[in-house]
Amino acid sequence: MSTTSTTRTNKNNKRRFNDDQVKSLETTYEAESRPELRLKQHLANKLGLQPRQVAIWFQNKRARSKSKQIEQEYSMLKSNYDRLASQFEAMRKENQNLLIKVQRLRNMTDENNGEENKNENICMPSCSDESRKADYLELETDVLNMDQIVEGCTLAPSENGCSFESCTFLDNMGSGSQWWGF
Length: 182
Fold this sequence. Notes:
70% of the residues lie in helices and 4% in strands. By secondary structure, the chain is mainly alpha-helical. It has a domain at 19-110: Homeodomain-like (Arc Repressor Mutant, subunit A). A two-stranded antiparallel sheet has the order 1-2. Helix 3 packs across helix 4. The chain is rod-shaped and about 105 Å long. Residues 8-68 form the Homeobox domain. Keywords: Coiled coil, DNA-binding, Homeobox, Nucleus, Transcription, Transcription regulation. It is found in: Nucleus. This is Homeobox-leucine zipper protein.
């Protein structure tokens, strides 16, 4: 029973630091987290502790401070990561939506270009440019006076409707098949 009681008394004899000792050690730690051997011995004498107890207290305090700092940095980094991840996801979705819109616009442009190619022969003058307006009107008067420009060619009504009788050199040559067989 003496060995068991000795073990219990050693556990019970572990001295905890009282409030005054902790305050003094904390104050010293704030000033210097790694005090020199002389300062540790001075504190131990002042507080009634062993120099080894003071050294271990500072070592443990540094370890706890480092762990606390790592936890704080981790929580800060985690919150930054979560914020950036949500922003990235939002930007990815926005990018996807924009790509879909671009594809729709390209499809619409392709459809419109296809319709313009079908209607190539139709000329639509722009009324915004005055010089073009004047050019268009001059062309219109030229078309109206075409019978004066081309002499000898007439528009003659035929049984099926209207026909254009031409007096070009091809008509004089005849419509033989030699012209078609290059």
